[in-house]
Amino acid sequence: MMSTQVSQRPIGELVLHIFRLPPLPGVPPETLPQSLEECHRGLSAVAWHKKIYYQGLLTQNGGDITSWRRRQFRIIGSNLIAYNDVTGKAIATISLRQALAVEDDQNPLAPGAVPGRRGRDESDAYFSDNRCFRLLFDNDEDIAFYADSEEEKAEWLRILRALVGNIPPHPLWAELVWQRHEQAAAAQALTQQQAQQGHQSQPQQEEETECILSQCNSRHHNIFNLRAPQPSIPRYNMGKDIKASLQFPKCGSPAPTR
């Protein structure tokens, strides 16, 4: 019988890309991604919503306050967030997704450009100059802002106008995946930090133990080698000592010593 040998030769390479989506209770199945492209879009959208686009000081009137107040602001994703100057914690959030337009007080929008747009209040006339602008919302509402300089106002206007009306979607499943990833990364960092601290403290504890033992051994050795001190008997010159004891020091002069 003739033996036939079959030679194997690679004719191609297959690369398989897999995206594992963990169980997400409470998320409707129809909102989950159905393709790898949708997964990439969702994760890119979450990264977009976590980015800080601009920050600085503005004086605000409207929204959660009824009078002009100076605040620290950050544009993070689709939100304009105000922070407390002392604690640094977020105290108010303005959703740019709900904003209809950004209006410059020096170049107001034409009537009818924004549905429900109202006229300006007389109380805003003091700040209505080259450094004032507004966010316009539904229901005849707006929030006025006053920048510290014309340059800062121009930058705020440029970024806000680029965001308002152009905000990408924020999928719930992608946000939950991002939160789980951040929690896992924080737990791993904490574990590594604790392990590193434990590794650094162990040699220190051993060194302290050796130091204590050496001190104990030294004291134990000294206990058995103690000798009673020999009393020193001073010799006195009776004549000089008696004279010295009868001489009183003058005022301001030091007392005589033996």
UniProtKB/TrEMBL annotation:
<dbReference type="GO" id="GO:0005525">
    <property type="term" value="F:GTP binding"/>
</dbReference>
<feature type="domain" description="PH">
    <location>
        <begin position="51"/>
        <end position="165"/>
    </location>
</feature>
<dbReference type="Pfam" id="PF00169">
    <property type="entry name" value="PH"/>
</dbReference>
<feature type="compositionally biased region" description="Low complexity">
    <location>
        <begin position="189"/>
        <end position="204"/>
    </location>
</feature>
<dbReference type="GO" id="GO:0051301">
    <property type="term" value="P:cell division"/>
</dbReference>
<keyword id="KW-0132">Cell division</keyword>
<dbReference type="InterPro" id="IPR052007">
    <property type="entry name" value="Bud4"/>
</dbReference>
<dbReference type="InterPro" id="IPR011993">
    <property type="entry name" value="PH-like_dom_sf"/>
</dbReference>
<keyword id="KW-0131">Cell cycle</keyword>
<dbReference type="InterPro" id="IPR001849">
    <property type="entry name" value="PH_domain"/>
</dbReference>
<feature type="region of interest" description="Disordered">
    <location>
        <begin position="189"/>
        <end position="211"/>
    </location>
</feature>
<protein>
    <submittedName>
        <fullName>Septin ring organizing protein mid2</fullName>
    </submittedName>
</protein>
